[in-house]
Amino acid sequence: MRARGLVLLALAVAALPLALPNKYAYDVAILVGLNAIVCVGLNLLIGYAGQISLGHAGFFGLGAYGSAILAARYGWPTPLSLAAAVAGVALLAWLVGRPILRLRGHHLAMATLGLGIIVAIVIATEDGLTGGPDGMSVPPLAAFGVALAGETAWYWAVGALLVGVVWLARNLIDSPRGRALRALHGSEVAAEMVGIDSARHKLNAFVLSAALAALAGGLTAHYAGFITPAKATFLHSIELVTMVVFGGMASTFGAVAGAAVLTLLPQFLTALKDYEMVVFGAVLMFTMIFMPRGLVPTLEKALAAANRRAV
Amino acid sequence: MAIRLLSIVAAALLAFAAQAQPIKIGAFLAVTGPAASLGDPEQKTLELYVEKLNKAGGVLGRKLELVSYDAAGDAEKARTFVKRLIEQDKVDVIVGGTSTGETMAAVPLVEAAGIPFISLAGAVVIIEPVKKWVFKTPHTDRMACERIFLDMRSRNIEKIALISGPGGFDKSMHAQCVAVAPTYRIQIVADETYGGGDTAMTAQLTKIKNAPGVQAVLNAGFGQGPAIVTKNYKQLGIALPLYQSHGVASKAFIKLAGDAAEGVRLPAAAVLAPESLPAGDKQRGVMMAYKKEYESRFKQDISTFGGHAYDGLMIAVDAIKRAGGTDKAKVRDAIEATKGFVGADGVFNMSPADHMGLDLTYFRMFEVRKGNWVPVQ
Amino acid sequence: MSAQFAQYLLTGVTVGAIYALVALGFAIIYNASQVINFAQGEFVMLGGMAAVSLANAGWPLPVAVGAAVALAALLGLALEKLAVEPARGAPVVTLIIITIGASILLRGMAMLVWDKNVHALPAFSGETPIVLGGATLLPQSLWVLGATLVIVALLAWFFHRTLLGKALLATSHNRLAAQLCGISVRHVLMVAFALSAALGAVAGILIAPITFTAWDVGVMLGLKGFAAAILGGLGSGAGAVLGGLVLGIAESMGAGYVSSAYKDVIAFVVMLAVLMFLPGGLLGARASDRV
Fold first, then answer.
1. Are the beta carbons of A277 and C97 separated by less than 8 Å?
2. For residue B347, what is the enclosing H or E element?
3. Are B121 and B98 in contact (CB under 8 A)?
4. What's the pTM value of the predicted model, to 2 decimals?
5. Domain with C29 in it: what CATH number?
6. Which residues contact A124 (CB under 8 A, 6 or more apart)?
7. Which whole-number Å values give the CA distances from C253 to A122, A231, B341, in the listed order?
8. Are residues B239 and B325 in the same domain?
9. What is the CATH number of the domain that holds B232?
10. Residues of B in contact with C127 (CB under 8 A)
């Protein structure tokens, strides 16, 4: 029963290329996958652990620039630079998370927002190292002389990784650790009374989500061959949180759905030219007003209600 | 015999069909976002002239079709849209890339796909080193620095202060000015920056005012930052000459900065104030026509950025005419062979080593006098 | 040296006053509804842009200003009625996303109704700088500071001396108890949104002569206003004002004495440091949760 969703996802990833007519369509699919990876991790933090982060684009950007700088400026082989960037960001998240996660609610939101902004400003200002606001070129991901190049190859890589990350997330949520997370989301005090070390669990969720964001960031940089600080700004952070909430918090597949819809929607709205922004804002507002729990949970409930009525 | 006849008929039919197909011009511009004041006139100019050319019968008997996307100044979005233009819309030539970031993100794609691309962005890195399929129309930021430094030397200015903003344009021009200053024997004695959305630069300007021996100030930026700098400049009573960059070459800057703009100088192409050109000037006719058409259609002042788009489109169309079709390699060669083309930014003479085709000749120095841009000799 | 310090201080206080007005808007809405209104910055933008377009159309400045503030208040009301009220039972995060959608919508509409250029409002009383202890101050800055003081005083009177204001305060302390006392929480919410929008619009109009206005000025100002509100302690009006001033001065001093490139970093580091040691903000209550 639990595995059903995962199998469906794997099937969808495997079958989607039949519907993709050209390289541009593959490109959009890859972007959806990369966003989904960040959102699954962010959902663990926001949806399950109940901690808001408005600065995750900072981790994304650090992963991207970390791998880009190590590979382009210091000549590290790209799989190594990517791994080092992810590990570095995880370490940073661990160091920064301990004091920050003592804050609650909006104060935590502001603190993470502030951190994300600091990261974005530093990246944009240190142009000797990062190329500044105009960004820098990134060498492709390559190992043993073979480069991961071309939309098709990247599609399968990102698709497989997404399925793996979703599997990891679902296993985590169904484990004692996951139940501890959900408990402390319900009531931190009650959870602690039952012996759950809330600080440690919050920190673990924070670090894992940061690492996933960094991984997606590094992959984005190597895929596009180019990275700019726009990916580390707070507008991008808010985009990510919006995807998680839109798709449905505390729902891994909701995170994937949210990433898919909000990545695809702008591509479809380009036909509206000047009205794109207005329509996008309106769609966001109306969806959240009528589906306050998010897309997937609302659909699940509707489906369950329909099933019950059918019986 | 019958087969030969059939193949001739088939070829003729195909050629006829191809002729009826429109020429697709792809564009990706920052129509919204922080660079919207640049991308919007660019978009409007492209639309206006595609319409005009179609009304006059199109190019080589074929209609022009403009496929344009809004990259909002974001390099990531630009990359996806360029891929869309190449793979899905299958355009023949690309004109666009309002900012350098957007342009550089597109470069690997156009080089791999082999499609001619004329950029509307400023940084010198776009055409240096020369890339086979990439061209550009505006003067580079390095040229802006050079033009300003030449003017400074003519006023015996040696020590200057720099103040610049956070954007890619600002930083790129700042880097170029720092690199080129020693060649013109200009010494930079103070170097301040401000942030996007900043409401006051008095702190930075106070530091500059107190820098020892400073004789002039150069502000490399665009948007509202330079207007605020100019107002603060006057507020603090700094009497030194103030130079702005071509990023604010527009009437809008004078409207914003008001009286404080008097005496401000900047380098710009003639499109900034076509009415100030003498009667015999090569660019006057073309520019006055552009001004009349744009202003009567959109009820807005023309700007140098719309001028870049005008040049990009017209050079592309001219190249297609000379190449006799939309074969991408032939069009590319034709663009590279552009000679004596009179545009908004100047007279273009491209070559395999120079994919911009402009030197300092048509990059003129303007000064604000009595609320108008006036060319300085 | 002291002339420099005076200049940084004057600039910091002027900028801080603007942040304070925006922060007050955040605080009022948060108090009434626990929602962080991410569209607050857009009200600042609306005030400035509406005033500019009306003034350009020939309306006398005071009338244009009044009309712009009224328009913003109406839009704030509309936001509450159409977006926040229908979603009342939703989790707070959902409400935040709704306001984010609203801010995108408002920005998109501003681009369509007006344009993408930067605009200036004429200064209220001229542009001759006033010299104070070696530093200069624009007359418009005096308007900003004066108006902020007047508004803060008016708000204090409103919240503590009028029935409506006391109803707002009561709702912020305990919504259920307020309802039991017969306070219509719906009306309170409407007033809160209209008031915050009006405050934002006033801030936008006051600074438009100094820093200009455009369709996208709301983003950065909203962010800094939010930071100021958190710094001062959400839920405290005095905290919002204090937070705004502290943020503005930290920015200005950071730019002047440390590094102009990193002045925003300095401001945020200050904010983070305050949050680390005073998790409720400068004047925020030492929060205690009922378990």
1. no
2. strand B347-349
3. yes
4. 0.89
5. 1.10.3470
6. A130, A132, A133, A229, B166
7. 19, 29, 52
8. no
9. 3.40.50.2300
10. 231, 234-235, 258-260
Residue B205 pLDDT: 92
For residues B115 and B243, state if they share a domain: no
d(CA A187, CA C289): 11
Q: What is the pLDDT of residues C244-277, one digit of tens each?
A: 999 999 988 888 888 877 888 888 888 888 888 8
Q: Note the pLDDT of residue B36.
A: 86
Query: What are the b/e assignments for A263-290, b being 16+ CB within 10 Å?
Result: beebbebeeeeeebbbbbbbbbbebbbe
Write the pLDDT tens digit of every residue in C100-151: 999 999 999 998 899 888 888 888 888 888 888 778 888 888 898 899 889 9
When pLDDT is cut at 50, 70 and 90, the band that residue B276 belongs to is confident
Give CA–CA dist C222/C229, Å, rounded: 10
Residue B374 lies in a domain: no
Q: How confident is the model at residue A127 (pLDDT cuts 50, 70, 90)?
A: confident
Whether residue A127 contacts residue A215, with contact meaning beta carbons closer than 8 Å, is answered with: no
Domain ranges of chain A: 2-234
Nearest CA in chain C to A51: C93
Q: Which residues of A touch B66 (CB under 8 A)?
A: none
Q: Please give the mean pLDDT across all residues of chain C.
A: 87
The one-character DSSP state at A292 is T
Is residue C95 domain-resident?
yes
Nearest to A102 among C36, C279, C291 (CB): C279
Interior CA angle at C191 toward C186 and C196, to 5°?
A: 130
Amino acid at A202: K
Phi, psi of B344 (to 5 degrees): -70, -35
Pick B133 or B20 by higher pLDDT: B133
Q: Are B283 and B42 in contact (CB under 8 A)?
A: no
Pairwise CA distance, residues A15 & B86, whole Å: 25
What's the length of chain B?
A: 377
Q: Is A7 exposed, middle or buried (0-12, 13-18, 19+ CB in 10 A)?
A: exposed
- Which token pair is A23? 């390289």
ipTM of the complex: 0.88
DSSP-derived pairing of the beta strands B159-164 and B187-193: parallel
> Cβ A277–C86 below 8 Å, yes or no?
no
Q: How far is C147 from chain A (nearest CA, A)?
A: 28
* Parallel/antiparallel/unpaired status of strands A226-227 and C135-137: unpaired
Using DSSP bridges, classify how beta strands B187-193 and B216-220 pair: parallel, antiparallel or unpaired.
Answer: unpaired
**Would you list the DSSP string of C140-197?**
HHHHHHHHHHHHHHHHHHHHHHSHHHHHHHHHHH-HHHHHHTT--HHHHHHHHHHHHH
Question: Which residue range forms the structural domain that includes residue C200?
Answer: 2-277
Sign of the CA dihedral with C39 first, then C40, C45, and C48 last: positive
* Interchain contact, A127 vs B175, CB within 8 Å: yes
Q: What is the pLDDT of residues A128-162, one digit of tens each?
A: 889 888 889 899 988 877 888 888 999 999 999 99
Interchain contact B372–C (C-beta under 8 A):
no
Residues of chain C found within 8 Å of residue B237, distances taken between Cβ atoms = 129, 136
C-alpha A27: how far from chain center? 17
User: Does residue C283 form part of some domain?
Assistant: no
Domain that holds residue B81: 2-139+285-361
pLDDT at B12: 65
User: Is the Cβ pair C265, A187 closer than 8 Å?
Assistant: no
Residue A108 pLDDT > 90, yes or no?
no
Which pairs count as long-range contacts for B144-147, CB under 8 Å and 24+ apart, including other chains?
B144/B173, B144/B176, B144/B245, B144/B246, B144/B267, B144/B363, B145/B173, B145/B176, B145/B177, B145/B180, B145/B181, B146/B180, B146/B184, B146/B360, B147/B267, B147/B360, B147/B363, B147/B365
- B231 Cβ partners below 8 Å, 6+ apart? B257, B258, B260, C127, C210
Q: Check CB contact under 8 Å for B88 and A21.
A: yes
